[in-house]
Amino acid sequence: MSVDGRPKVFISYSHADVEWKDQLVKHMRVLGDEHGFDVWDDQRIGVGAEWEAEIDAALRAARVAVLLVSVDFLDSRFIRGKEVPPLLERREREQLPIVPVIVRPCGWKNVLWLSRLQARPRNGQPLSGCTRHEAEEHLTQIAGEVDALLQCAAAPAAPAAPAAPQALPAPPVTPPRVEVLAPTLAAATPTGDEIDALAARLGVTLRPFSFETVRLDERGAVVERRKLESRLFVEDLGEGVTLEMVAIRGGSFRMGSPREEERHDLDEGPQRVVAVEPFFLGRFTVTQTQWMQVAKLPQVEHGLTADPSRFKGARRPVERVPWSEAAEFCARLGRLTGRTYRLPSEAEWEYAARAGTTTPFAFGPTITPAFGNYDGDHSYGAGPAGEYLQATHNVGALGVANAWGLCDMHGNVWEWTLDPWHDDYRGAPSDARVWETAADEDLRVVRGGSWLSYPWNCRSAFRNLDRYVVKGDTVGFRVLCSVARTS
Fold this sequence. Notes:
Blueprint (H helix, E strand, L loop, with lengths): L7 E5 L5 H18 L2 E3 L10 H11 E8 L1 H5 L1 H18 L3 E5 L9 H4 L16 H23 L2 H4 L2 H5 L8 H4 L1 H4 L8 H10 L4 E10 L5 E17 L2 E8 L2 E5 L16 E5 L2 E4 L5 H8 L27 H15 L3 E2 L3 H9 L59 E8 L18 E8 L15 E5 L7 E2 L3 E2 L6
Parallel strand pairs: 1-2, 1-3, 3-4, 12-15
Antiparallel strand pairs: 5-6, 6-7, 7-10, 8-9, 10-16, 11-16, 12-13, 13-14
Helix pairs in contact: 1-6, 2-4
C-alpha cells in the first residue's frame, strides 16, 4: 500500500498489458514525485500479504482510477467482478474520476458502462496502433490529466465555492439579446450600431445572406425549420478564393453546462455569465483551398505545410494543422488584408456555437447525423443513431446552420481556440478574453467535436484539449476578425 496520506491513483489492468501499465506508471511517477501523489498497482502487494484485502483497501483509497482497456481486461472475471463495481459505485456516489485508456483494439464501445466514460487517447485509436512517439505523447498527456484531476480533487474547493454563485446572476439588460433565441429561433440578423460601427472600423462592406436552421425535439425529430437572414463580409484571398465572415453581435451568455445536462463534465463548470463584444467569425471552418492560398503568402513566424490534410477535397476542412500553424495562417491573413485575424477565444467560440440557445446543442436537446458529422453509431439522450461517415465532409454540406448562420459547429473537425487549457472555470474572467493565468501553455483548448467523436462530445459546452504541436486528422479551425482586445 501507499506509504503516507498522499492521494492515490489506482490502476486496473490485465497482466497481458503489464508493459503498457509499466510505461504509464513511469510517466505518472515523474509527476507524482513532483506534486505529491502515489500510483498503486498490484505489484505493490508484498510477499505473504492478503492480496485481495490489499486491492480492496486500494480501491477504497483511490482518488482517481485508471483502467487499461483491452480484450483481456474485458475478459477478466476478477476485474469485472471485483474491481470495476466498487469503482463505478464510488463514481456514482462520490464522482470518483475514472479514466479508461484503450491500450489494444477491443469492443469497449459496446460495453454500456464503459462507453459512457470519456476514454483516452482522445482520438479513439488504441495505444498499440500508435507509433512509439505518438504513444509517448499520449501517455504524457494522460499522466498530466490524471495529475490535474488529483490537484483538483485535493484543492480545498469550499473556500472558492461562494465566489461562483456571485458570478451567476445575469445583468438585467444584456442576456435577452442572446437568450431570446432559445425557444423560438428568433430572427438572426444582427442589427444596430455595434455591427455597423465594427464594420466601419474594419473597412468592410456587409451584405445579407440567408440560410436554413432547424429545431429538434428530444427524440431528434424536426419540430421547426426556418429560413433566416444574417450579414457577412467577403474577404478576397486572391485567385478567386474568398472567405466569408459572419457578423456576431455582442451580448452575454451563460458559459458551460449545468450538472443535470446529460454527459456533463466537471470541466464545464462552474457556469458563469460572460460578456462578449461583437466580432466576425468564419461561416465555415477553413477549407483546404483557403489554406493553400494563404500558405503561398510570405511567412510571418512559422512555415506552413501546403497540403497537410488526410481527407483531400477543395471544400473539405483543412486538418492536420497544429495550433502554431493555425495562428500563422491568421497572421498571414492579417498582413494580407490589414485587419486583425486570430483564432476565437474559448468563450467567443461557445457564444457563437450556442447562437442564443441554452440546450446541449444549437439545434435543441439532442442531435442526429443529419445535422452533424460525428460517430453516428452512437446517440445522445433519446435521439437516434444513424450514419457514421468515418471522414470529414465538405464544409456546409449538411445544408443547415445554427441560428446565427454558422455551419458545422457540431462535429466534422475539432476547432482550435486561443485559450490554454484550464481544468474548470474557477477563476475564469467574466468577459471573453483569453484566459492566460495559471495555464499550461502547451495544451490548447479545442471545441466542437469531429467526425470521430461521440455525439456528447459535440455539445456546445464540451471542452477538449490537445498539445499545440499535435497534427491530428480530427482538428481544424475557423478564424475570427475583430478589433476588440482578447487578453
